[in-house]
## 1
Amino acid sequence: MSGTIAKYARQLLSINRMDPWLALFRSLAVWYSEEDSNVFKSKIADKLKDIESKIVVAIDDIDRLDSNELFEVLRLIRNTDNLPNLIFLVTYDKDYVIKQLKNKGISNPDLYLEKIINVEVMLPKVMGYELISMLYSDLEKMVDENVVLSIMNTVGKNKKGTRTIVAILTNYREIERFAKQLAVHVAYAQENLKNEISIQDLFWLELIRYADFNFYMRLSKYVDTIFQLSKGDKKQLILDDTFKKQFEPDYADTPYTSKKVFEVLNYLFREEDREGQSLSIVYINNYSRYFSLGLEKRKFYKFDLDKLLNGEDVDYDAVLRSFFENEKAEDNYDLNSLLFLISNNDNAELDLSLYQRIIRLLCALFKYEKDNEVHRILYHFVCDEEIIRKDNGKWTKLFLANYKEFLSEYCGYNVAYILRNVYDTIKDIKEQNDNITKVKQLMSDNFLKWAEKEKPDAIQIIYPNSMLYKIYNKSNIKYHYVDKFGNYMYSDIECLIWNSILDYFKDHRSTKYKEFDEYFNYDITDEDDPFTDMIRQEEIDSANKKVEDIFGSDSKFKQYRDNCFADKAGSKVCKH
């Protein structure tokens, strides 16, 4: 029967002059004659009648053909669809097919299709949540579970982002293709970029690559035409206003990319707090890493870090200075890379000597920090429960010894911050009593060293942007309890440097007591006035709230005022 079908096909092809197909069907034909094609069709029909089963010919994706190819396939179906026991199952995007038939000059394509397709079944729309669920399911087969959880987290945070995903990945085939593409790039990045990129950001970037490769290449090559740098130390990339205007409703055209791709881009480079996402693509030092084959040459690799941590008598400051300062910092240094590698050290596997070298290295790194990242890593090594309880506080003592040496060069609110956290962690551990005393002393030394250098005025404690306020605030421990409604309530504030502040300002009194009192509105009522409770009670409550926020209690406020301010005559006690 196959020979007969081949001869019939040859006749059809000869009629329709589908030249590219001739070689294929000639190889199938055992012999060739000029018999009429209807003879072959009749022979095929007779044999098909003897077959008890139905023969289903599935032709998928005819909407991927151009207009000429599509037209010829439909003609072949039309010429064979009345054969017995033969059923054609054809899948396509009807809008596309109608458009291509119009291009072939068919004036009524709907009627043309009706003559060929006897029964038309519209498939139900695939819901967005089903597509997203399939994406997760496919990824789980190919990548680590933590990668899938990270992607689920970033998608789940943003409903608009979810809608954009299903606008780009509209069916199961595209979900499957994208999942495979993403899995390959994630695996490559984890191996060659040493886990120094955000998988969440990589997900959105790969979605852009899938949807619009030309625009993806534009991102990699022409970053300056799309982004501008935010103000501040972090050098964060944000979408340029000129670029964003292209996607406003009244803009005539979008020459670079489609609206849906722009929505992905807008989410990826959203202007919001990036705390805890130091590997994000939005930071200029990280950006090129997402388009590279590996880490740049002047990055800290694991073996470089090992040399620093395992070397004997290493001058950490000299090594770091050589690394960071030989060339332009903004082009060549990556503090985050180094900190990331340091923080990956497992505290459970640390020995005492390695711990000491890490602390020394972090202290040496302090001069290069821009956003408290060094102190965040220090907190990781100092306040971890395993570290705190090791050798009955011996490791904490070692840290404090290194930190004391560190204080010989640096002082300020960052120092107060880490020491406050150490104190807060060890304050209730009996074995740490000696260390608790040392922490308090270091806190005091830090404040006094800074005060002697900067000569602050006592009035500065009420201004949040002043260094005095920051050091004082970072030195406070707020004790809290949970009320019957489950709310956190702060009952008291302990300032670890309170006495040092009072002692310092006894010798450096401020004469700005009126300005100080006016800030708290304490000059608005007369204590002997019987109508005090009725007059401007709202302002009194506001003043008390300010006192509580800054000093914790009215008694401490008065103690500060009386110890740290002098009247116009310069007396030792503020009589106001």
## 2
Amino acid sequence: MEFNKRISIHADNRLIRKTIYSAVIAFINAVCIQATLSHACFGWNTIEHFKWMAYFLVSFIAAFVFFSLMDYIRLESGRSAAGDDTGFSGKRWLGAAVLFFVCWLPYLIIYAPGLVNYDTVNQIKDFLDGVSAVPFGYAPGQEEVTVLFNAHHPVFVTLIFGSFIKIGILMGKPAVGLTLYILLQMIMAALVFAYVIEKAWTGGDKKSPVARRVITTFIALFPAIPYYVCNMLKNSLHSILIVLYVFMFLQIAINGHVFSKKERILWIVLSILVVLTQNTGVYFVILTGIFLAIRAREERKTAIIAVVTSALLMLIILPKLIYPIFNIFPGGKQEILGTLFQQTARYVRDYGEEVTEEDIEIISKVVDYDTLVNNYTFETTDNIKATYNLHVTKKELSDYYKLWLRQGLKHPGAYFRATLPICGMYFASGYDIGIFDHIPTDEGIFAQIRHVNPEGVYTSMTEIYEWIRSFPGLCILFQHALYVLWIPAYCVYRQRSIDKKKSLLFIVPFVVNMLFLIVSPMVYSRYALPMIFTSPILLYMTLLKD
């Protein structure tokens, strides 16, 4: 009787917790949907309020059903695919890696010699001729500089990409360099994903072959993964490294794993590579490393070394010493300040009558005020960010920060209405993962690097992707919100249901990436790629732990 009573209480607590988490997801979803559709924040009139309530109710039901279905999953330990051995198997690891590579290879063949995006084009041109537009490379009229490299994009990645294209040039076919790089990236990604799946399975409480087969099938067949793995793209390289970094973090946070000496060295090396492959990587390593140092006593020294090394490298050694010596143009502050500029523009748009001549003068010293007023768009910060004054003084920036703070305190709603229409498409249901499906047309070297197959072949492949993405049921797997919000939220709920005192350290890398998405300059799926790659791993490890 006492046992049955405890079971009943636990079930009631779980129902309450499920209701609360579903309501939180529904609230975020409703706010973001309204922001992306009407560019409002909770609505300005009765109709908008009713719309918000409708979004909330539908989202709540969907979230509650999602949580209930996930709760229904019961994983049992069983005989492994290779026999009774449930330890780490190098044979299974390499077998999964080969499977991934074979499943991804058709994408490379169809889109041969491979895929790139506009950022990569600019990086290659930067590497080859040293003339780079500042800060983007595609906005007309921007200032240009003649330098060795432009650190707007990670110089380390520019060196890697440029070197492979240079190899192709020396071989007489630049496209060969692109294909060679992508083949190596595919191998690396296959090995990383396969290692993480095998290692997580051996470290989980439930040695469930079913769980391992499901996650293996997903990584092998989910089309968005090969579209990015077969792409010479800084976000792809960075996200593959993030998979291993986050997995090692989760080993500690979920499984209570203690690093070996080799793993500690690997953690420090990974931390350095993460910051070298993405300009925001240094903040990711610092924030996750600080929490790891606080919560994981055994790894405190390793975490501190990784944080200090990464911070010194990216914040002092490279910008203050290496860049000046080698004539490398530093990345501008406009990348960090883009969200602030967007908020100022929305304030001017909504409350222009309150903007004084002094305010206009302060703003104009940082960005072009006319562009801010006339070319404001809801979906991107680039229009305003592109007019950033590269020669602005510290005093002028300080004055702008003070004005930004004053205006925000006066009308905070304007700042929400500026930010949510952009980042909302990551958190709101209904917005799909986008892909790059062609090599951009450009002058110079990329006039020689073109697709091998006729256009109809690879555009047909894109059409198939879009058809699968819109297929009822399957379409859920292609939505940003599943990876950015729903899976992390469910994992928190499930862990708290197992033990309400359990540490939530495991969610830190995902929260940090959410913060990055909130200040994104526009909605590109590549910015959410770390979450798309790692959230399935988090869910996999969470289910194995139950």
